[in-house]
Every structure is written in structure tokens, then in C-alpha cells.
Design brief:
The complex is a heterodimer of chains A (322) and B (267).
Chain A (H helix, E strand, L loop, with lengths): L2 H32 L3 E7 L6 H8 L2 H4 L2 E7 L3 H10 L4 E5 H9 L4 E9 L5 E5 L15 E4 L5 H12 L8 E4 L2 H9 L5 E5 L2 H9 L2 E5 L9 E8 H6 L1 H20 L2 H10 L4 H4 L13 H13 L18
Parallel strand pairs in A: 1-2, 1-3, 6-7, 6-8
Antiparallel strand pairs in A: 3-10, 4-10, 5-8, 5-9
Chain B lengths: L9 H30 L7 H12 L2 H35 L1 H16 L6 H8 L3 H25 L3 H9 L4 H35 L8 H10 L3 H29 L1 H7 L4
Helix pairs in contact in B: 2-10, 3-4, 3-6, 3-8, 4-6, 5-6, 6-8, 8-10, 9-10
The chains are: A alpha/beta (322), B mainly alpha (267).
Chain lengths: 322, 267
């Protein structure tokens, strides 16, 4: 071939290869960008337990797992569990007392992964500064405010008092939302209140409430309080989505363990907790691995204080898919 | 003038009416039983199961004393208080345009505020006992009573009032013999609406700081996924509503007997 022809052929060949490569990469790129994220709804409450899901959303862990998670914030505790059972949400952040009560009635709810475990600073039984209640021994026969009767607070308090030899069955539980407990204490409508953060810090600063004992210490230390749950039907139909959700949560929990300040930054973005308060409140811990033994502590305690009447097979309600 | 049924036909007439409405209820319950029994859905127990749950946990001695009687007592007291305060207030507003000018905007504002939102406020003022619940119901259901009393007075036939003036009927006699009877149909309508509303507010008042009552039991059962007990409570509540409404209807019939005859409506 003459020099000119060879050059033209080479140029043509190179142009062809380049354009083919361009088409392939553009086509591949378009395909990757066009892969749709699975939309799921997470029913949750404006409490600190949810922080790990908020971190997973903000840091993009859900997106990396192919999920577009929309947080649906509700006000009443059992409403989140009811949302997954009716299909209004695919996942919920629920506390174990609700989950086990539902399961014991045959409701097909399933635990995806742990959300949070409580620490001593996170929750207390509080009284007014001039209250005659001086120690936990004085709590027998008193009226204590709780957000949900039969919930995780009364459960932990009953178990703690039982371990310390106090007759907890004489306590009268009075149900009211956390924001109302401060004024109820002040007006003497209740003798003591079960508080969680941020109300522990809030009521201590506005009413100078005194802590009788930290609820999650000793026998109840690091007790799992809430989990992410789904309906058994959804887990059976979409195990990959449930597994992807769990992976994203685990990554978020890992990140939070490495960067402790992240939680205090996240809290004001989805709760009514202002940044100044967020820097002071006692925090929970967010485990990266779901520990069946730890979860079973809750069901065992529920049996001991009479909230569950029959043994519960917890393992059968924990999602085991990959 | 509608003709009254003859005395000989009257008892069979009312028995037939009762049978007609009862037959529809029986048919509906039968359909409900068949549908739920066929579906075995966790959230929809059969009427037979609901009835046995009602007998086991609601129609017991403690069920009556802790739940049914206190709740219905609070409903009755709250509604009666609202009626005692609301009817005179509404009629006064209707009779006096200057008083109305001051007070009507407040009434409309109060009616617009949804009752559940102010429940925590009632807790602060009244504590968490029966007084709070009765006050909450009374204040919540007063608005339809007041507004209907206003309407009842304002919509009295002008000709009636002018005729009374022409004949020199004034003061208490005018009020008792002209104004009050003419306003009664609207007032009774307001009382009827408020009775239904007071049941709703009774349940809401038992959401916070309650330790007994029908609403409390329904809400607790729902929170702990005791679906059967929740349904039993709902049925108890519905039956209570029907009974109360029937009682009020009987009173209304007696009170408005003259009005029906005059307007030519059938009994």
C-alpha cells in the first residue's frame, strides 16, 4: 500500500475503534445511571434511636445498596409497627416490647437488624427536687409516668427493681407523652416519671429534676431497645431488599462508631432537639452487628416481669437472609 | 294534619318497625360472620368471637365498674354540662345582636380548634382525673349546641314574633311560649350532634393518663395487638352510642310533638 493509503486506513481504523469505544462506554454509563433505586418507606419516630437510619440516608449508604429510603415520621410508638403490617411502610423502627407483644399474638412481624441499645445516661426515673422519694426503694406503690404502658421503659424499670428486691407490681403506670411529663411532675399528678433523652436533660434544666436511678444500668445495662422491622410477608417476597437495608444500616453504625460527633450533628436535622441541647444529652449505642443473645435478654425480661405469658422463639423472627 | 294511627293498630305498628330494622341488622351480622369466617384474617375476627370476648372481658363485674360505667358516666356528665351551659348561651347570643357582635367570633374560633390538640392544656388546668375528662368533653361538644341554639333563635319566623308583639306578649311569657318552642327543633338537632361527638371525645380523653374506661381499653388493646379485645371494645362503644341516641330520640319525640303535628310530618 502507498504511504497515503496506509495512513488513511490507519486513521479510519483508529476513528472507528474510538467511536465504538465511545458508544460502548456511553451506552454502559447510561445504563448504570439509569438503574432505578428501589423506593421504600421507613416508618419511624423523631427519637434518637432512628439516628443510624438518618446517617445511612445522609451518607449515601442506602443509595449504594440500591435503595431510595423515605423516612415517614410518626408520633405514636405502635404506629410504626402497624405501618409495616398494613403495607403503608416497608420497614419500621420499633421497640422490642411492641415487636414481641405482636409476635406473641401471632402477628407476622420480623426483625431486620438492631437499631439501638440504651446506656445509663440515656434514660432515668426522675422526680421533683423536693420529692419524698429518695432512692429506688421508695418507688414501690407510687405513680410513675410512662410513654407507653407495657413498653420498654416499664419493662426495664420492673426488671431493674426486681433485681434489686423491690416490689415493682405495686407501681401504677400513668400513660402520657414525654413532653407532658414535666408539668405532670410539677403539679404532683405523678410521683415520678420515666424519661428518655432529650427530656432527661430538658427537665433537669427547667425543673431541676433529680435522678432516682439510671434505668439502663446493672441488670439492664446496654439493653437493646429498638430494632428495624418488616413484615414477614415482605421479607419473604423481597429478601434482597431487606438484606440491602441491613447492610446499609451496618455501614452507618460502623461509621458512627468511628466518628462519635456525627450523631450530635445529625440529631437536630430530624428531631426537635436543638444543636446546643444535642451536644449535652446522653447517647445510645448503635451496634453494627445484630446479636441474637442480646435481643433475647429483652424477651427473657418480659417473661420474668409478666409482660409475656409464654416463651417466645426470638430466633424465628429475626431475618436470616443474605 | 297527619292522622294518628288508631289505638288498635298502634302496638303492631311499632312492633313491625322494630322487626324491619332488626331484620336488616341480623342480615348484616350474618354477612359479616360469613365473610370473616371464610377469610381467617388476623385483623377481622368473626362476630361470634367478638361476642364471646365481650362476655369474657367486658361484661364482667370489673369490666362494668372499671370501664363501661365510668366512661358512659363521663360522657353523660360532659354532655349535660355542655347542654346546660350551651343552650342558654346560644339563645342569649341569638336574642341580642349586640351581645352576638362580641361573642360570635369567639364561638367560631373555639369551634375551629380541634379538641384533641388542646387535651394537654386541659391536663395542665384540670389534672389527670375524671374532672379533666368531663371538662374536656363538655368544652368540646358545647360548640355545636351553642351554634344550633343561635341558629334556632335567629331563624324564628318573623311573622310569629311580630304577631306576638301585636298581641302584647312580652318578657318571660314571650320567651317561654314563642321563642323557646320555635327554637327547639334546632336546639334538639344540636344536642343530637353533640351526643355523637361526646363519644368521640370520651375516647380521646382516655388516651392520656387514663387507667380505665372504654377508650382506654380499646387503645391499649390496639397498642398491644390484642385485636380481638379492641374489636370487642369498639362494638361495646357502638352499642352504647345506639342506646344513648335512642334515649335522646325518645325525648325529642316527646318534646317536639307539637312541632311535628303543625308541620304535617309523619311520626
Amino acid at each position: 500500500m502507498s504511504f497515503l493509503r496506509r495512513t488513511r486506513t490507519s486513521a479510519l481504523a483508529i476513528a472507528l475503534v474510538a467511536s465504538l469505544a465511545g458508544v460502548v462506554s456511553a451506552g454502559g454509563g447510561a445504563a448504570a445511571a439509569a438503574k432505578p433505586l428501589t423506593k421504600v418507606v421507613l416508618a419511624t419516630l423523631p427519637v434518637t434511636d432512628t439516628a443510624v437510619a438518618v446517617v445511612a440516608q445522609k451518607e449515601g449508604f442506602f443509595r449504594q445498596q440500591g435503595l431510595d429510603v423515605q423516612l415517614s415520621i410518626m408520633q405514636l410508638g405502635p404506629a410504626t409497627t402497624q405501618a409495616v403490617l398494613t403495607g403503608a411502610a416497608q420497614f419500621s423502627q420499633s421497640n422490642y416490647a411492641t415487636l414481641f407483644a405482636a409476635r406473641s399474638k401471632g402477628i407476622p412481624v420480623e426483625i431486620v437488624c438492631e437499631a439501638a441499645r440504651a446506656t445509663p445516661a440515656f434514660s432515668t426515673v426522675a422526680v421533683m427536687p423536693n420529692s419524698p422519694i429518695k432512692s429506688y426503694k421508695d418507688l414501690a406503690g407510687k405513680r410513675i409516668a410512662t410513654s407507653v404502658i407495657g413498653g420498654i421503659g416499664p419493662l426495664a424499670i420492673d426488671a431493674w427493681l426486681k433485681a434489686h428486691g423491690v416490689n415493682y407490681s405495686t407501681i401504677t403506670w400513668v400513660q402520657m407523652p414525654f413532653p407532658s411529663m414535666g408539668s405532670a411532675l410539677q403539679q404532683g399528678q405523678v410521683d415520678a416519671a420515666w424519661l428518655v433523652e432529650p427530656f432527661v436533660t430538658l427537665d433537669a434544666s427547667t425543673l431541676h429534676t433529680r435522678t432516682v436511678f439510671p434505668v439502663f444500668s446493672g441488670p439492664t445495662a446496654r439493653l437493646p431497645v429498638s430494632a428495624f422491622a418488616t413484615s414477614a410477608a415482605y421479607a419473604k417476597a423481597h429478601p434482597q431488599i431487606v438484606a440491602a437495608f441491613r447492610r446499609a444500616i451496618q455501614e452507618a453504625a460502623n461509621l458512627m462508631q468511628k466518628k462519635p460527633g456525627l450523631l450530635r450533628q445529625i440529631l437536630p436535622t430530624y428531631t426537635a432537639i436543638k444543636p446546643a441541647l444535642a451536644s449535652k444529652i446522653g447517647l445510645e449505642v448503635y451496634p453494627a452487628q445484630t446479636d441474637l443473645g442480646q435481643i433475647e435478654r429483652v424477651s427473657t425480661m418480659m417473661r420474668q416481669v409478666g409482660l409475656l405469658t409464654a416463651p417466645l422463639n426470638v430466633q424465628s423472627m429475626v431475618f436470616s437472609g443474605k | 294534619m297527619a292522622t294518628e294511627p288508631s289505638r288498635a293498630r298502634a302496638p303492631w305498628h311499632s312492633v313491625r318497625r322494630i322487626l324491619e330494622s332488626a331484620s336488616l341488622i341480623v342480615a348484616l351480622v350474618a354477612v359479616w360472620q360469613i365473610a370473616t369466617a371464610a377469610n381467617h384474617a388476623l385483623y377481622f375476627p368473626t362476630p361470634a368471637q367478638i361476642w364471646s370476648q365481650m362476655v369474657i372481658s367486658w361484661f364482667t363485674a370489673s369490666g362494668f365498674t372499671q370501664n363501661i360505667l365510668p366512661s358512659f358516666a363521663r360522657v353523660t356528665l360532659g354532655w349535660v354540662l355542655a347542654a346546660l351551659a350551651g343552650v342558654p348561651l346560644g339563645m342569649a347570643i341569638g336574642l341580642s345582636p349586640s351581645f352576638a357582635g362580641y361573642v360570635k367570633p369567639i364561638v367560631h374560633f373555639g369551634r375551629a380548634v380541634p379538641a384533641p390538640v388542646v387535651l394537654p392544656v386541659f391536663m395542665i388546668f384540670f389534672g389527670i382525673g375524671d374532672a379533666m375528662k368531663i371538662a374536656f368533653i363538655a368544652v368540646g361538644v358545647a360548640w355545636p349546641i351553642i351554634l344550633n341554639a343561635i341558629k334556632g333563635v335567629e331563624s324564628i319566623d318573623r311573622v310569629q314574633l311580630e304577631t306576638a308583639t301585636v298581641y302584647g306578649i312580652r318578657g318571660p311569657r314571650r320567651f317561654l311560649r314563642v321563642v323557646l318552642p320555635a327554637a327547639l327543633p334546632d336546639i334538639m338537632a344540636g344536642l343530637r350532634i353533640s351526643l355523637a361527638l361526646s363519644f368521640v371525645l370520651m375516647v380521646i380523653s382516655e388516651m392520656i393518663a387514663a387507667s380505665g374506661g372504654i377508650g382506654y381499653q380499646i387503645l391499649q388493646s390496639q397498642a398491644q395487638f390484642d385485636i380481638l379485645n379492641m374489636w370487642a371494645g369498639i362494638v361495646v362503644l357502638a352499642v352504647g352510642g345506639v342506646v344513648f341516641n335512642a334515649a335522646l330520640t325518645a325525648v325529642e319525640r316527646r318534646v317536639l310533638r307539637w312541632h311535628r303535628g303543625l308541620q304535617g310530618e309523619s311520626a
